[in-house]
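User: Teach me something about this protein's shape.
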Amino acid sequence: MKKLSARRRHPAAALVVLLLALVFSGGLYALFAPADQAKADETAQSLAIEEGKKLYAVGCASCHGTGGQGTSDGPSLVGVGAAAVDFQVATGRMPAQQPGAQVPKKKNIYSQAEIDQLAAFIASLGAGPSVPTEAEYGPEGADIAKGGELFRTNCAQCHNFTGKGGALTHGKFAPSLEGVDPKHIYEAMQTGPQNMPSFPDATLSEQNKKDIIAYLHAVNGDETVSNGGLELGGLGPVSEGLFAWIFGLGALIAVAVWVAARTAKAKKS
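Assistant: First, the predicted structure itself:
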């Protein structure tokens, strides 16, 4: 017993015990770690990239280049990330039917599985924004009032107060956000498609984006209550300006005519 007690007090005893514990825990991890699952996920990702490369060669390479490097007909896709692919392809904007000032939204020709494969291939070309999860763009924990404030500050100049859209220069336009999938709105803020500037997390945080999406759902959702009339606050600056021009200027002309008539009548009397 005295010899055993003396060995316990040896300066190297603690180190030996620590090494034995590390060897034991490492052995347990190697025995029970889900290596097969990790390998299966890696294999599935590789297959998705390969399938995405085939889809890309057929539908995208003619404009964006065989390696995504871009051509005179299409920009480089290196570093745009999976989110840009999911937005552009899922909304039917890509592949584009013809060049123009702006590519409009149209019917999608790819399944979601094919879009995921394309996104996996493009993401493999260079790091970029990933496809957001429902937790990032869902309404849980969103502040609608804050979202309205952020939207009016950063977005209303082009999309109008309630996201009805509006005209831009040289044939371009800000599309309506009514009925747009919340995931696609989040991706648009992440990636800045076409004429839109991007709003990375350093500019608008994940919570900010969630708030904006919640605001748009509140003003354009199925449960939105209409106050009747033409809703001039949602039709855009052209119609609002026309209303002000016709009725405002018309009222001024009517007042001017009335004042002139009264003045002429007073002079005659």
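Now, about its shape. The radius of gyration is 31 Å. The longest strand covers residues 166-167. If you'd like, I can walk through any region in more detail.
User: That's plenty for now, thanks!
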